[in-house]
Design goal:
homodimer; about 280 residues; 7-stranded mixed sheet; about 20% strand
């Protein structure tokens, strides 16, 4: 938008990543209806370094842009949901989620295959331990997070209409399958205080803090219903090596880190199920 | 020792690692002079699974052991030391260390090439920022940690003799170059309390806690001198994938994690240099 205002015919950005490599990182562009739409691209950090050096060294550098990406018409799709019904308060819903869709240039292993698997693992691990939660715990794989939060919005709309459901808590894993070092919580001060009182229970598993502020894109639309939000926060060093890039692939996921993140989600869901929030 | 007491002719252990792969992990064996010495080996976890299945399935399984490892005579070697002299209290020494030696079956990138590089980086980064520490900060690459702490012992011996040196603090990175999530401190209660008061300064960089208890093998011999000990603790999920194994290689080190660990060491060294402990 800013480039178009200045008369640019197109815009190329250096990929937003910590890594110096040859992978361009994709993403969405927001246009402004009052300004001419111009094509936008991202280049890899290595290419950006090279282009920058060239621009400093030579005059009259020319660059040719060609794109063939396009937006297809909407088609129906679905969130995928599984749940363990609560034994005492089945109408109080705890949601553990990730999103099913990914960008087309890779598998989307970390964004957000791992979040989906971790959400399923919340249910599987509680079942495997024979735990019957007091409140209902739901694993939700949200559809179409990347292009408009359609699944998250549809889930919240359904939650609003379901007068027999009270959505008390939702946790999302959408920051890479690198385990959890903190859990971030957004809620009322007394809810945050209660969640923080559980910190000692998860610390031995490498979840060092329960902190103020957190959530996720897909669960965000539940917020106006008074749902307490929670985000699984891994260490931040590696996610943007893979985020929206061709190397967001299965082999870059570490099994134990994936499991540790999943069990952190399971722990916080079980605690809320057992003690409320 | 326990197997020999029971009449075993040799012992083979499942490699002590979290990973399920084909890499045997080496290490040292401690013998007892009152018991017959028997050969000891480690096998990969995949091989151990296979052997275990075979032993359950078949009777009369035979296993052939052959070793050609041996202990060579001692030769002189050296710790490698660089320092920034303190401007106000040059005789108060802060040691940041890792160890130079590694097992022969790999490069020893995480054990402990990364600790050496991080120790050098403590000095380099402070110099690059133009910081002149009040106390002396020393980067020490200890020799022969793996077979008897020879470098660590020699350094502590020299420290005892150097009556003009007061070794107030030592930090070691020898748990893999995966960054730092906590710093563990061993010292008097008031020293720990003072160190913990700095927690808010390092938290924004992903060092979530300063905790009670920590140190490192090489700096350990300084402990009787009253030196406060500190260990750099990364997340524990990945180190034992590589520890003492053929895949402890350079390409498994993540640049930003390595840097984050180094700068955590630099931060704690600078804080001790500036404010004492």
């Amino acid at each position: 938008v800013e480039a178009a205002k200045l008369g640019a015919v197109g815009v190329i950005i250096r990929s937003v990543t910590h890594a110096l490599d040859n992978n361009p990182h994709t993403g969405a562009t927001r246009y402004d209806s009052t300004v001419t739409k111009i094509p936008a691209m991202a280049m890899s950090t290595m290419d950006a370094e090279w282009l920058s050096a060239l621009l400093k060294k030579e005059k009259g550098v020319q660059l040719f842009m060609k794109q063939d990406c396009k937006q297809y018409p909407d088609v129906p799709s679905y969130n995928v949901i599984g749940e363990l019904r609560g034994t005492e308060f089945p109408n109080e819903i705890i949601t553990a989620g990730g999103h099913l869709d990914s960008w087309d240039l890779a598998e989307g292993a970390h964004d957000d295959g791992t979040g989906c698997m971790q959400s399923i693992e919340v249910i599987r691990s509680l079942k495997a331990m024979g735990i019957k939660p007091r409140r209902t715990i739901r694993a939700v794989m949200f559809m179409n997070e990347e292009n408009g939060l359609r699944g998250g919005n549809a889930y919240a709309e359904a939650a609003k209409k379901a007068t027999n459901e009270k959505h008390i808590f939702a946790v999302e894993s959408d920051a890479g399958g690198f385990g959890a070092v903190t859990l971030g919580i957004s809620g009322k001060p007394e809810q945050l205080e209660k969640a923080k009182s559980w910190a000692g229970l998860v610390r031995p598993y490498g979840v060092y803090q329960i902190t103020d502020g957190g959530g996720g894109a897909d669960i965000g639309p539940l917020r106006p219903l008074g749902t307490v939000m929670c985000g699984v926060n891994p260490g931040s060093q590696r996610y943007f090596d893979h985020h929206h890039a061709p190397n967001d692939t299965f082999e870059t996921v570490h099994k134990r880190e994936l499991e540790q993140g999943a069990l952190s989600m399971a722990a916080i869901c079980w605690l809320v199920s057992e003690y409320g929030l």
